[in-house]
Specification:
By secondary structure, this protein is an all-beta fold. It is 1% helix and 33% strand.
């Protein structure tokens, strides 16, 4: 186990800053593997052209319910990346582009000072976006040592712990040539330091790499993983694939986990790309289905969420049914967030929307409503920041954006 990251922020205070990458990246998925190594770059996500998957069509399978109708065509245009947009210096009431020209912005992590870090899946670059209204300009602050191949791997989730101000270290989930892993990354004077790997061995594949990480109200790091295209991993408690994990900031299994010394918190997942807690400290997770249903799940320790035995609601007491489900044509969910009104908001890739799901005290859901349908194309991540909502696009056209919107745009109020 590598040395503790809770001390690396102080220990690496004088480390050499990461060299920034000035070259532009390809705006299309490579037809042959492309390896990016060394510290200091970001990445983005794939085209997600198949049902129930982020990128690529998956084989059909028998499910417990008939597929629902509905289609949605993702953007296939390719444009030359543009320069990052300047952070606005005045208050805005309408949509504002905070960052542009991205090769798939995958995750947004808001820092305590109101600025944010944005991961770029296909390049490994991390962008810093100053607090809106500060007059600052976005910049690339470093690059992580990803190995990028065709598909969904690369630089994925970012997470900021609650004690960031005291020990400025954030966390990143990314792909190598052999696995997916998590590193603690020091933040010093507007750049990133040398990442320290705290957790490795998460299965990686062309598809279904999971990638969402988030700190829970208990201070532990939760990790959404995918089954990397091997459905047998989801039900295998000896594998990290197809799970939600719960670990300490040092990468150890968190105390109180349901399977002894295992980092596994829940299992039977296909591809988890969204994690969020509500005011009752309940964990909600988005789940990519295959050909029939995408899901919103209420996560409980030690429970089995059914994949690949079931997809969507099955009424089988051996598995936990989703709280809400959608045809894959309407959803393909990635990032989620709990809004100021207590509803769960889900970013939809194939569905090219934001879905608002009212959730009740008993853990059931009200009627979901759809917002921004087709307005910005595929939506990857969503965060509520002050009196605004931030979303990232994932159109894989070299012109993806981080956009700030009024809360009313997604149904708040």
């Amino acid at each position: 186990m590598p040395h503790s990251p809770r001390s690396i922020g102080r220990a690496l205070a004088g480390c050499v800053a990461i060299a920034l990458v000035a070259g532009a990246c390809s705006t299309a998925e490579p037809t042959a593997p492309v390896t990016t190594t060394g510290v200091g770059a970001g990445s983005s996500t794939g085209s997600g052209v198949g049902p129930g998957t982020d990128a690529g069509t998956q084989p059909a399978r028998t499910t417990t319910a008939p597929p629902s109708s509905g289609t949605s065509t993702p953007s296939t245009s390719r444009r030359t990346p543009t320069a990052p947009a300047r952070t606005p210096t005045t208050a805005a009431t309408g949509p504002v582009t905070l960052l542009s020209g991205l090769d798939i912005a995958w995750s947004v992590a808001v820092l305590p000072d109101g600025s944010a870090l944005v991961s770029e899946r296909n390049t490994g670059r991390i962008h810093h976006v100053p607090k809106p209204g500060s007059g600052g300009k976005p910049s690339v602050v470093g690059r992580l040592p990803i190995t990028r191949t065709e598909g969904e791997g690369g630089l994925l989730g970012l997470a900021v712990p609650e004690d960031f101000d005291a020990d400025p270290v954030f966390y990143a989930y990314y792909s190598t040539d052999s696995d997916n892993r998590i590193a603690a990354v020091p933040w010093r004077d507007g750049t990133i330091g040398e990442p320290v790997v705290i957790f490795s061995g998460i299965p990686r594949g062309q598809y279904h790499n999971g990638g969402r990480i988030a700190f829970g109200p208990d201070g532990f790091l939760y990790v959404g993983t995918g089954e990397a295209g091997d459905t047998s991993l989801s039900q295998n408690l000896g594998s990290l694939g197809g799970k939600i994990l719960r670990i300490t900031p040092d990468g150890d299994p968190a105390p109180g986990n349901p399977f002894g010394g295992s980092p596994i918190w829940s299992y039977g997942h296909r591809n988890v790309q969204g994690l969020a807690w509500d005011s009752r400290k309940r964990l909600w997770a988005s789940e990519f289905g295959q050909n029939t249903f995408d899901e919103l799940n209420l996560i409980e320790a030690g429970k089995n969420y059914g994949w690949p035995e079931v997809e969507g609601r099955a009424g089988n007491p051996d598995f936990v049914d989703p709280v809400a489900q959608w045809p894959t044509s309407e959803m393909s969910p990635s990032g989620i967030a709990v809004g100021p009104d207590g509803a769960v908001y889900m970013a939809a890739l194939r569905g090219q929307s934001v879905w608002r799901v009212p959730v009740k005290a008993d853990g059931t859901a009200g009627t979901p409503t759809r917002h921004l349908q087709g307005t910005y194309g595929r939506v990857r991540d969503i965060h509520f920041v002050g009196d605004r909502v931030w979303i990232t696009t994932s159109n894989n056209d070299g012109a993806d954006r981080l956009i700030s919107l009024p809360l009313s745009a997604v149904g708040v109020g």
